[in-house]
Structure formats: structure tokens, C-alpha cells
Design brief:
Order of helices and strands: EEHEHEEHEEHEEE
Distance between the termini: 23 Å
Radius of gyration: 19 Å
Strand content: 35-45%
Largest sheet: 4 strands, mixed
Shape: elongated
Length: 147
């Protein structure tokens, strides 16, 4: 956790990183609830779910497009391993010179697309999702889509 003072002179606390299930959402929601007024912005990559605890009212939803796991053209892949070495989530594996993408653990960051030297990994599809804004007591809530 870190704390900085923003331009409007209110402290800002960020709760981030760490293994899933360690209580980041629990800590962040309770910090927001304990404050006199707070902005709670949920940017969880896998499942932004702070709203389940805060139960916002007057929710406004807006459609957004989010990236989905990459497409691999095996004919262009040279099995150089650049993408595999880049992926910190271990969502890629090179087995018998064939690149596999494990969509369940891919965070859709696009790093593998940038690391690919041969152009064999493409980011062409998007899925529809929604972000929403709402309020809960003294908390302004914004949830971004899961990737």
C-alpha cells in the first residue's frame, strides 16, 4: 500500500498487487468505508468486485470493449520463446514448437503481441463488457471491466 497527496489535498491510498485471495478488496473497501468521503476505483484485472460489498445506488453503466487473449498464427510463429519469456502470468507455453495460450490465466495485457518478433501473435478481437459508476453513502464508486 502507498499513500500520496493529490492536487485536491486529499490523501490517496492504493491497494494493489499480491496473490489472489489475500484480502486486497477487503482492505480497500473497508478503508473507503471508514473515510469521511472517498473515491473507490476498482481496477482488479480478473474480477472487480468491490461493488458487492459497497452496494452502490444510482448505478450508471456504459459499454466498453476489452481485450481478450491473443490469437496465434502457428504458421508465422518461429518458436523463438520471446513471448513465453515475457509473460509473467505463465499463460503461454511452447510445446514441440507449437505455441499454446492458456486463456484462463491470460490477463490480456498485450505484452506477448509486442514481444513477438515474427508477427505470429495478433490482437484482433475484443469482447463487450461494461464499466459502471455509482455511489454508496460517502463513497463514489467506479468499477472497470474484468479483462
Amino acid at each position: 500500500m502507498g499513500s500520496v497527496v493529490m492536487a485536491d489535498h486529499r490523501p490517496t491510498i492504493a491497494v494493489l498487487s499480491g496473490k489472489g485471495g489475500t484480502g486486497k478488496t477487503f482492505v480497500a473497501v473497508n478503508l473507503a468505508a471508514a473515510a469521511r468521503s472517498a473515491y473507490y476505483i476498482d481496477c482488479d484485472v480478473e474480477e472487480p468486485n468491490g461493488h458487492l460489498f459497497l452496494r452502490p445506488k444510482n448505478v450508471v453503466s456504459q459499454p466498453v470493449e476489452v481485450l481478450i487473449p491473443p490469437l496465434v498464427d502457428q504458421n508465422l510463429c518461429t518458436a523463438c520463446r520471446s513471448c513465453v519469456e515475457f509473460c509473467k502470468f505463465n499463460a503461454l507455453a511452447l510445446i514441440l514448437d507449437r505455441l499454446l495460450v492458456f486463456e484462463e490465466i491470460c490477463h490480456s495485457c498485450g505484452g506477448c503481441v509486442l514481444a513477438c518478433l515474427s508477427g505470429g501473435i495478433k490482437r484482433t478481437q475484443k469482447k463487450k463488457s461494461a464499466s459502471f459508476n455509482g455511489g454508496a453513502k460517502r463513497i463514489t464508486l467506479r468499477c472497470l471491466p474484468a479483462f
